[in-house]
Write a structure and sequence with these properties.
With 248 residues, this protein is α+β, with helices and mostly antiparallel strands. It has 6 helices and 13 strands.
């Protein structure tokens, strides 16, 4: 279940910019979700860029289009801001490392809190998921017409998901498609494997109105897989999903 609430936290005096306010909570599993806008003023982007590492600034400079560069800077700076809030430090002092498939994580230090997180952004909306001690993945997509959706589904959905998708009424197929895509993407991001993970070895629900859930992982029923899944609408016209390890 996803529950909406207002996040009203005071940030350090050193921060000149407010913390993103829209947030959700995956209440049954203590996963915090924050939503942030990326369409900020140029002076704000310049201020946020000061929080990035040298490597992050080099990555930003490799973007050919200004809007893509801006979205990367704002999304990454906001991530640093939100992590700094939890670590009681400054955004520029947050040290990130990367897994084999590029998933960012906090550099582990003795005695430091075991915060785990994930981020996704689409157009001008970013979503962040935070958890203590459990892996988490999140994904967001804009609901839009995709001309070759059926072909994509045939390549990336499991056999059971393809059957459920093709059975949808035409007016529900695009939402069903993006329900499935975001849920599968969130799961493989939680695993840390990205799209290198075989996407047909697990099933997720996708029908609009049907509860979000992992139905199967290999030969294990979803309820016994050790993972939980939630779906939510971060803003009109978007759908997002979050997956986390279950509490032990």
């Amino acid at each position: 279940m996803i529950k909406r609430f207002s996040a009203c936290r005071q940030y350090h005096r050193s921060a000149a910019l407010p913390v993103p306010q829209a947030a959700s909570s995956f209440t049954s599993e203590a996963i915090e979700i924050v939503t942030a806008r990326l369409d900020t003023q140029p002076e704000t982007v310049r201020a946020l860029a000061q929080w990035l590492s040298a490597e992050e600034r080099r990555r930003a400079d490799r973007y050919d289009f200004d809007r893509h560069r801006r979205r990367f800077i704002v999304a990454r700076a906001r991530l640093r801001q939100l992590l700094a809030l939890r670590l009681m430090t400054r955004p520029e002092a947050v040290e990130l490392v990367y897994g084999t498939h590029g998933k960012p994580a906090l550099a582990r230090r003795s005695g430091s809190p075991d915060w785990r997180f994930n981020v996704s952004h689409c157009d001008e909306t970013a979503v962040y998921a935070f958890s203590r001690g459990r892996d988490v993945g999140i994904d967001i997509e804009a609901i839009r017409d995709v001309r070759d959706a059926d072909t994509i589904a045939s390549h990336f959905f499991s056999r059971s998901e393809q059957k459920a998708y093709l059975a949808l009424d035409p007016g529900e197929k695009m939402l069903g498609f993006f329900n499935c895509w975001t849920r599968k993407e969130a799961f493989v991001k939680a695993l840390g494997d990205g799209l290198s993970h075989p996407l047909d070895c697990f099933d997720v629900s996708l029908a609009p109105g049907e509860p979000a859930g992992i139905l199967r992982v290999k030969n294990t029923p979803g309820r016994d897989s050790g993972w939980c899944l939630g779906s939510f609408t971060p803003s009109p016209g978007f759908v997002a999903a979050v997956v986390a390890e279950r509490q032990r």
